[in-house]
Specification:
cytoplasm, two-stranded antiparallel sheet, 9 strands, Rossmann fold, alpha/beta, 6 helices, glycosyltransferase, transferase, globular
Length: 179
């Protein structure tokens, strides 16, 4: 799926040395700013989904833009996976590893009906730590994860392979080699 979207690739800005020297940051916000690019992205992601989905589980924060649009197009609900401390009420949380330290994601305890078919969505997959934590949250909340979709995959960083090894079907629109 990732080779057929050159017009979308051209809308992704690369920012060198962000957030650290040597990193090539793939900035999806420039693609989201372009109406045709945004529409093409959402249409292609929706078309990549086989079978029904009850909820789109969108990861904070750029995943919300993509996930919300996909949920609307697919007639699905939107499950927000937030950084810990951002949701009111009772939550469940999951820690995950960063390059230096850990972080935590959370969802409301009632965010998902038992057995709901849930598709995980975010703008980018790199090392897979955030996506794996989000997948664990979906399952802990009672959902049945049916796959994961990303606008951008950085395959050299191993995140998409990590999800596949965990039995999660992964698709992305674009791939960029290197970091």
């Amino acid at each position: 799926m990732s080779q057929a979207h050159d017009e979308l690739r051209d809308l992704v800005r690369t920012i060198p040395d962000f957030p650290n020297p040597g990193i090539q940051f793939r900035d999806v916000t420039t693609l989201l700013l372009d109406p045709a690019g945004l529409r093409g992205t959402i249409d292609a992601l929706v078309a990549s989904v086989d079978g029904p989905v009850d909820l789109i589980a969108a990861i904070d924060a750029r995943g919300f833009a993509v996930g919300g649009a996909m949920a609307t197009a697919m007639g699905a609900g939107l499950m927000l996976i937030r950084k810990d401390g951002k949701l009111p009420g009772a939550t469940i949380a999951e820690d995950y590893a960063l390059e230096y330290g850990t972080d935590r994601l959370a969802v409301h305890v009632d965010a998902c009906a038992p057995g709901a078919r849930v598709l995980l969505v975010d703008d980018l997959i790199a090392t897979g730590g955030t996506a794996m934590a989000a997948a664990r949250l979906v399952e802990r909340a009672g959902g049945r994860l049916v796959g994961a979709r990303f606008v951008i995959n950085l395959p050299d960083l191993g995140g998409s392979a990590k999800l596949r090894e965990a039995g999660i079907e992964v698709r992305s629109l674009l791939e960029f080699e290197g970091d």
